Amino acid sequence: MTVPQDLRSPKPMLRSLSGEIVARPPLWLMRQAGRYLPEYRGVRAQVASFLDLCYTPDLAVEVTLQPIRRYALDAAIIFSDILVMPDALGQPVAFREGEGPVLEPVRSAADVARLRPEGIHDKLAPVYETVRRLSRALPSEVALIGFAGAPWTVATYMVEGGTSRSFHNIQLWAYRDPAGFARLIDCLVEATIAYLSAQVAAGVEIVQLFDSWAGVLPEPGFKRWVIEPTRQIVASLRRQYPGLPIIGFPRGAGLLYPSYFVGSGVTAVGLDTTVPLDVARGVIQKIGPVQGNLDPLLVVAGGEAMAAATREIVGALAKGPFVFNLGHGIVPETPPEHVEQLVALVREG
Ligand code: CP3
Questions:
Q1: Is 281 noted as a catalytic residue in this protein?
Q2: Whether 291 contacts 261, CB under 8 Å
Q3: Which H or E run contains 293?
Q4: Can you tell me which atom of ligand 1 is nearest the CA of 64?
Q5: pLDDT of residue 1
């Protein structure tokens, strides 16, 4: 696609997401701010709970900028969590050391009726303040990404009461009482639209929807609880902000990636580590821009294994619209110097 020079956004991220082929692909890394960085652990130690960090703009701005100071990344992602949503809806979330998130489960229409989608902005106002400050603080070539969990994935935590292995409670609810379960998903669609719209109004330039547990659903459920709610969110954001790039990350979607891309209407899809590069290039990138998909464990391993896989991904996907990223978030045991080497590999080719 040729775009007149003077109409081009100077930000490589926005160019790739608009369908341009950028010679040196832009990159950012999911979970680029976090425990693998010693300076993150320093800030984290100043607050009692993880959610306090998300709700304190001074600290959230600081930890968002930490990876930007260290590495030549093309985007910053606001520091928050997908689980601020249940917390803001009136289902308190606690992060316990070594245990992950803990919530009092929502399992019936009566539980859903107690959630307050109209009240979310009270709790989430500090996130919008973080966005306003970041949009002033970032270097001019770095794009600002906002995000939310997609309804299905956020619902898994709300119904299971935390991280799950089996997802039995949520799947059985959806099978036994689809109309009741739909009220929870509809509530999350409405709240997510309001949340992401407020992030865009405050200054984010791109949004990503994390659907980390999309892959646990058989096809009919995937269409109803992953694609359809995402389509509604995308349609509403597009009505309000027509040019907004929206990245969908339906982790584990497998053979359903193309249906997700077309059916949801997202601008680009994030590919997980299992998507083969020939499928990514020959099928998914024919639909639109793709982002991904280096295995985060290769950044722990480093060395030639990381370098070879990175060259393969860039070789296969940089001939089309592409954003380099991992196939899932950075893990805490990642050596920061390996991230530096990875960024150099992608930037220098
Ligand atoms: O740099 C960034 O990417 C921005 C911040 C960010 C966090 N979480 C910070 C965080 C983002 C984008 C997320 C997304 C998120 N959160 C997802 C989707 C992506 C994925 O990994 O699949 C999910 C499923 C969550 C839910 C979540 N948050 C869990 C299950 C946990 C506990 C397990 C863990 O990794 O600790 C969190 C906590 C969390 N979110 C931390 C960070 C930095 C660690 C908490 C701490 O510092 O004590």
A1: no
A2: no
A3: strand 290-294
A4: 1
A5: 52
- Cβ of 178 closer than 6 Å to ligand 1, yes or no, is no
Residues 6 or more apart whose CB falls under 8 angstroms from that of 199 comprise: 78, 127, 128, 131, 146, 207
Task: Indicate yes or no: pTM above 0.85.
Answer: yes
Q: How many Cβ atoms sit within 10 Å of the Cβ of residue 162?
A: 18
Question: In the annotation, is 44 catalytic?
Answer: yes
Predicted local distance difference test score (pLDDT) of residue 122: 97
Catalytic residue among 55, 128, 157, 195: 157
309 lines ligand 1 (CB under 6 A): no
**165 noted as active-site residue:** no
List pLDDT tens digits, range 115-150.
999 999 999 999 999 999 999 999 999 999 999 999
Probe residue for ligand 1, chosen from 49, 82, 142 as the CB with the greatest number of ligand atoms within 8 Å: 82
C-alpha torsion sign, points 64, 343, 22, 267? negative
Q: Is 147 in the pocket of ligand 1 (CB under 6 A)?
A: yes
Residues 122 and 87 sit within 8 Å (Cβ to Cβ)? no
- Containing 143, the helix (H) or strand (E) segment is strand 143-149
Question: Residues in the chain with pLDDT < 50?
Answer: 5-6
Going by alpha carbons, the residue nearest to atom 8 of ligand 1 is: 81
pLDDT for the residue 7 = 57
Q: Is 87 in the pocket of ligand 1 (CB under 6 A)?
A: no
The answer to whether 112 touches 159, Cβ cutoff 8 Å, is no
In three-state secondary structure terms, 262 is: helix
Count of residues in the chain: 349
